[in-house]
């Protein structure tokens, strides 16, 4: 039995039962793929179900406001995915429906090689292979490929190999099979080699090199940033503003930072709630301090700030760090 046939046989017995696999509707498939980028299925499935319940069709999603979409996305992180999702929904509606080919799907905002391949193969039966972390891991170990997966050469090599192994008549099943195989059997750490149906012909198993494959050449550099937030409460209202483009958390709401406040009395009157709260992003490490200030009169803040009732905060899309700081504030109160 060859590689693809073995994977398909394994998938028949071990594949995950997921709601978006019960349909080939491109909207449902696309939504699942976008949500599951950088997100575990255990967390992402509930978001997919809520999005599908709130916006039944791509036209419904396109008609929503960006604020509504960001609020529904809250907690998933990587908010550019939500903004791209919303923009792509509007593209689909403008063109009269989903593109039906891999090449056309890549014209949608936020849809790259992997997502386009998933939609094209699952919804439109186009024989195009998916390649992501799971696929890199399975192929590099099985074939003993040491080319770095984050190099230009590596990406080309793995895409070529993945496409050559794809059974043309069953692209959807195969793509889902290799994804599940990487997630459940050929896992990043402690792969289940002793029960693996491919172990007899697997290079990494034979050479005991599973812990060294796949190979990466680049390390992500993280810069450290320090933010000082002030929870300003005047009577029953608090101040918020929406972050602009060009930095993290675009379009999300946050508390004022020290740099926004021109009234120097806040430093004498505010009390420290938390110091050095650490929040790790892909390329940045945020260290945040939180102060609480309850001035007797409403301070002037720059344009763009709004005052909202404190009990209405749930209606605003907040970055995860804001949620953490507000939880600390709540416990302290």
pLDDT < 50 stretches: none
Helix content: 40-55%
Given the helix and strand composition, which structural class is it? alpha+beta
| Shape label | elongated
Report the sheet with the most strands, covering strand number, pairing sense and barrel closure.
6 strands, mixed
Number of strands: 6
The H/E string reads HHHHHHHHHHHHEEEHEEEH
Instruction: Kindly report the average pLDDT value.
Output: 94
- Annotation field: number of helices: 14
What fraction strand?
A: 5-15%
Gyration radius, in Å: 24 Å
Distance between the termini: 65 Å
How would you characterize this protein structure?
The protein is α+β, with helices and mostly antiparallel strands. It has 14 helices and six strands. Strands 1, 2, 3, 4, 5 and 6 form a six-stranded mixed sheet that branches. The chain is elongated, with a radius of gyration of 24 Å. The model has no long low-confidence stretch (mean pLDDT 94).
Key attributes of the depicted protein:
single chain; 333 residues; alpha+beta; six-stranded mixed beta sheet; 14 helices; elongated
Produce a short descriptive summary.
It is built from 14 helices and six strands. It has 333 residues and is of the alpha+beta class. Strands 1, 2, 3, 4, 5 and 6 form a six-stranded mixed beta sheet that branches.
